[in-house]
Amino acid sequence: MAGKPILHYFNGRGRMECIRWLLAAAGVEFEEKFIENPNDLNKLTNDGSLLFQQVPMVEIDGMKLVQTRAILNYIATKYNLYGKDAKERALIDMYTEGVADLGEMILLLPLCPPNEKDAKVASIKEKSTNRYLPAFEKVLKSHGQDYLVGNKLSRADIQLVELLYYVEELDPSLLANFPLLKALKTRVSNLPTVKKFLQPGSQRKPPTDEESLEKARRIFKFK
Amino acid sequence: MVWCNFLQLTFEDENVGQGRHPRGTSTSAMKEADTPPTSFWCCSVINHKALWLLQLYPLSIHSFTQVERDQQTAIMAGKPILHYFNGRGRMECIRWLLAAAGVEFEEKFIKTPEDLDKLTNDGSLLFQQVPMVEIDGMKLVQTRAILNYIATKYNLYGKDAKERALIDMYTEGVADLGEMILLLPLCPPNEKDAKVASIKEKSTNRYLPAFEKVLKSHGQDYLVGNKLSRADIQLVELLYYVEELDPSLLANFPLLKALKTRVSNLPTVKKFLQPGSQRKPPMDEKKLEEAKNIFRIK
């Protein structure tokens, strides 16, 4: 039963991208079935595949998993990227939840009304600089190891490095004063699986442009 | 004058029992007593609890307040300590889970922005935010990290990765609806009716049917693995909030109602549901203002 996981989502980053990163970093090949119009989404809903009528949905090991965190937790456990015990898992969870909080702000930026956008961007930059990046830099400094938890690659490193790419996309200068984070980004990016995922032609998705955003709005029916 | 610790303990217990707290708030509770309250001289009852604590704390000139003693007991007994303001917010699901698991816990309430600053400045808050729970030598932040740890520790997280996946799916759905309800008090008045309507609609058409269907599909007493898990506890907590919003919302979901009754009748949960427990009431206007002040929300 070594079927590849199948990812159901639209052809863009959204809430599926962190799952693509984790699978790719774990060296797991996966298929994608893109939702191109509202009908595709209705079809999935109507055949009972979506517990809460929402995507992301990942078919894996005979299950149709929904909810991003449920999917990430399962993949991380399956591929030994979730620490060695409950205490390591607690640290990993703390860090990944912080990553998710900042990531959520960046994710929702394209949906922000134009007149509020500058303020939102400023807020994201401020939180990156004063809250999130310093916290992770401090963790790395505290133990001086190559990875955030347990001296071993975990989902926390992968999810943080993904976020660092988005922070850099927003404003490269934001990473300037965080040498250990920059080193982690380089180190993780050079892992063979990640390196491959970062190259053109991989399943990694580009930033959401206007066209993609309009398509997503139509599919998911939000304003 | 040298304060006899034993006598101070006795006095404090007397006071607390009569609804008078010598220190008022938790922030001032950490200071030492300055002058002996006059009623000390009237105190003659020897309190057995005080005698027990006397064995732990030899006579000293430091006088402990009730709050300090509770915290010392908590630390020594290994009780988790919850840091939050005195309201539901993002800590309530953690209180529910601990209570349902039969775990005693202490609470240190944040009453002012300065209390929050103090926690931030002494490095206790990884992202300068609460909830924060001191447990097993860690200072855990982030609600989900805390819930995951507690669920694992008390065997409320399923027996393997697949059960965990189901539990996670269900609890994330609960969290999505719970988040809408949580943020309702912060909604501008002109948007509130629309928001309430949206919550009711999503409850009726998306979330409640999904959970009812799960229970129907296997006909078992609990959502996952025929055994109580965090999914049942967190869902039942949510059902109470849905009911608070509008009792008729649960009308067409007999299996959910049965689950709610079943879980509510578990001894630990039953106790938590009774008045005087650490369960917090719905947010009122006053509480909302307090929270906005503490967390510096406009």
Description:
The complex is a heterodimer of chains A (223) and B (298). Chain A has 223 residues and is an alpha+beta fold. Chain A folds into 2 domains: 6-79 and 197-209; 86-190. In chain A, 57% of the residues lie in helices and 7% in strands. In chain A, strands 2-1-3-4 form a 4-stranded mixed beta sheet, covered by helices on one side. The longest helix of chain A has 30 residues, at 114-143. The radius of gyration of chain A is 18 Å and the shape is globular. The model of chain A has no long low-confidence stretch (mean pLDDT 96). By secondary structure, chain B is mainly α. In chain B, a hairpin with a 2-residue loop joins strand 3 and strand 4. Chain B is globular, with a radius of gyration of 22 Å. Chain B has helices spanning 5-17, 48-56, 66-77, 92-100, 113-121, 143-153, 161-183, 189-218, 230-245, 254-264, 267-273, 285-294; strands spanning 81-84, 106-109, 132-135, 138-141. In chain B, helix 4 (92-100) runs parallel beside helix 6 and helix 7 runs antiparallel to helix 8 (189-218). A 4-stranded mixed beta sheet of chain B has the order 2-1-3-4, with helices on both faces. The longest helix of chain B has 30 residues, at 189-218. Chains A and B meet through strand 4, helix 3, helix 4 and helix 5 of A and strand 4, helix 6, helix 7 and helix 8 of B. Chain A: Its EC number is 2.5.1.18. Chain A: Residues 85-208 form the GST C-terminal domain. Chain A: One of its GO terms (molecular function) is glutathione transferase activity. Chain A: Residues 3-83 form the GST N-terminal domain.
